[in-house]
Write a structure and sequence with these properties.
There is one protein chain. The chain is α+β, with helices and mostly antiparallel strands. It is built from three helices and three strands, in the order H-E-H-H-E-E. It is 45% helix and 12% strand. It has a three-stranded antiparallel beta sheet. The longest helix has 17 residues. The termini are far apart. The N terminus is likely disordered.
């Protein structure tokens, strides 16, 4: 049995998540779908952790995270991961 160091496993999981998101560009992704992708488990009624993940991702990739152009909130539905909007 070959054991990979923890950082390598973490990188592989992150890569898989990015691939999943790229295959769904311009589609509304529910918070439930994103929670399953990130944690591999169901979303609890008051679980806001997915919002924290999205906020951190926005901080990393958006020019102005307060006015996102790549990760758009669709109120009541989820998020859309889009190319930069004009």
């Amino acid at each position: 049995m070959i054991l990979l160091p923890l950082p390598v496993l973490h990188v592989e999981r992150e890569r898989k998540k990015r691939r999943e998101l790229l295959h769904r560009l311009r589609r509304v992704l529910s918070r439930e779908f994103l929670m399953d992708l990130v944690k591999g488990e169901a979303l609890e009624a008051f679980d806001r952790s997915i919002d924290v993940h999205v906020s951190r991702l926005r901080a990393a990739i958006e020019d102005d995270p307060r006015r996102p152009r790549r990760i758009i909130t669709v109120r009541g539905s989820g998020y859309v991961f889009a190319k930069a909007q004009d």
